[in-house]
């Protein structure tokens, strides 16, 4: 992609292993950057929509991450919960890969979830 990437530089693509979840703070807002089972990289709000638990502490399987709190899984592409008790999506953020580096723009929510309140 030409031009300057949008968002914050998070890490190199090679810093995230397949099925790994990396928690980062962007403007004090917790984000989880996840590599799915096929190697795709996604950026979502790190807080489960059911309660205040970090999704980065959960297991990645396929293209979903599971919250250890009560077992809801969230689709990494859409942020949608795949089963109860969570029923609200978590925000999915614009992500660009530029020169093998990962950039996340938390001002751009791509799935219609409420935008985070940034400090
Ligand atoms: S806190 Fe995540 S499913 Fe309950």
TrEMBL record:
Pfam family, one: Rieske
Signal sequence extent: none
Keywords for the protein's UniProt record, in alphabetical order: 2Fe-2S, Iron, Iron-sulfur, Metal-binding
Name of the featured protein: Non-heme iron oxygenase ferredoxin subunit
Domain of life: Bacteria
PANTHER family assigned: 3-PHENYLPROPIONATE_CINNAMIC ACID DIOXYGENASE FERREDOXIN SUBUNIT, FERREDOXIN-RELATED
Entry GO MF terms: 2 iron, 2 sulfur cluster binding; metal ion binding; monooxygenase activity; oxidoreductase activity, acting on paired donors, with incorporation or reduction of molecular oxygen
